[in-house]
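Hey there, shall we discuss this one?
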Amino acid sequence: MRGWMKMRSFFMSDEELGKKDDDHKLVNSVRQRRSSSWQPARGPPRRSIKRIALVFVVAIVVYLFVHNIPILGPDDRMRRPDYAHFPGRPPSSPGLPSTDNAMHPPDPDAQAQLQMLAPRTTERNFNGPFKFLNLAISLQAIANTRGSQPENKNVLFAAASLKSVATLLPMACQMGLGMKSYVHFALLGGSSINARPNYAQISSDGRLEKAVFRGFHHINNYMHPQAIIVDGTNNEEAYFTRGLKQHIKVSKTSLVELPRFAPKSLNWITKLDSAALRMWNKVKLDILIQVTPKSTGSLIRLLRSLSAADYTSSAIPHITIDLPYQIDISTKRFLNSFEWPPSYIPNPTNERHISLRHRISPRKLTEEETAGRFLESFWPAQPQNSHVLVLSPHTEVAPQFFNYLKYMLLEYRYSETSRFHNWGQHLFGISLEQPSTTLDGETPFDAPLFHHPEEISGKGTLNPYLWQTPASNAVLFLGEKWMELHDFTSRTLQVKEKSEIVPNLVEEKLVSKQHSSWLEHSLRLARVRGYWFLYPGGEVVQHLATIHGELYNVPEEYANLKPSKDRTPEAIEAMRQKVRWAPETQLSPISLLDALPNDGNLWPLTALAIADWQGTELSLEEFRNRANEFELLFKGSVGGCDAETSEGQKSHEAASTQDLFCNLP
């Protein structure tokens, strides 16, 4: 109180303040004369304003003092994980960001002005240790994607070059719109991005390569991507590619390297889920060509079409050509100069992925010998991942046929939905042709129409469909089913040799002799197991393959047989004319997604229309009931199994038919 009085007297010494105080005294004297009764006194308003102003001034002084107090210890902004100074640290440059200010970034406008005014650093020779200052924030944000588990729904797009980013980003967005996977995009390298190391702009290529490797290592620990999709062209930075390849060797993650023009030719990969993309590098396709006598000229056309196809979605397939005893001179010359892989496909080892099998004996082969020789031409090393495409010399394939096969395989055999519903259990193969008749060669076949699940009364369309009948000119067999067909044919021939009376189910022929003999065994197995083949439909087949019938020849095993019902000269000539004048599909080059219906989105396999081997459309339940009935009939008449006692009944094993034959070891 005493201090306040002193301060008050200090202000009162001022002349102007003294006048104002006189005014206050005058008011008080007048108030006393005007009223003799007691009233509460009113505080002087001007003095209150002075006190408020004084408090405000004192507050400003205290704030300025505290804000500018001398620093007695380390700067609190240095108390962060990257506070250590290591040897060889480059001096701070006006145009480069400092790690000391990472927690307090400068104003963007001021930083832009500094970048314009400061001289640019062109040397990139810094090789010090690196840290990822902002990567942890991005990785922590994806904790709900179950990235800690080896199998999840994460797919990673990665790039370092801005040109590669321009290629990958639209595909990543399109895949994300499909809502089948968690799609992530990682930018690694020297740009101003979260996944870059510190001092990226002045780092050497060797340091950036190590940073890319370590960056992928950290991402893999938090994300475990099922596939990494990158730009495989020269637009990508070399250090990024080297670091990525080192990571792939360690992590064994599937790597999808997109070629040039991938947004058009491989845009179908955006429709796949993470489980299908995980099998991208593991799926292997081989090609088997069985050449019949007098058809070697057609082989040249087939091989040329194979050379012009697009194989950028997978490793180059291995071709096996089964040649007859006699080969014309033009075919020999062509095979001597034929290059496989084609010259436009990189082949650092100069390895020829082609095998020629030339028969020794000039003797005509029987049905059993022809079927055995054909099935012995291929054996899958990994049945779950190795598959074989069977082509006849009369076939000509389109540029997109290989991409179509891989798309169908990944979706209907390896996707998460396929594994959940076990679609691969009944899928025998995938056809590239559209037959006009059933296997008897006489009955016209009209493909069943597809009906939209949400439009019960809607008009059907020519979408892909399922048919129990195998094709003979262009068909892909799944590896497990090929092994099962191999075992089934072997056991059937054993029963035929050991039986005094050959069972009717083995003796009767349902397949016309215009087809190879191995097709009979394929049809019989499909009927027993309830298998089906996926056919493309009329709108898609014109973009896959065409069958030329102008040079049709009767299969070798039926060339010298005695005349029968369908072996008379008139029947043979009618058969040739029918095949020759059959409507031929005109191939048209187009992207795969544009060729497929429903914008390339594949319908569930069980939603497609189903037809039995005779061409009759059935429901799924009817189809399976007929398969169960035929299986019991086959086991009893051919396999020697007793349905009542189950004596000698064997368990079912994958890629084996031992459960169908109780009379064989």
Summary: The longest strand covers residues 284-290.
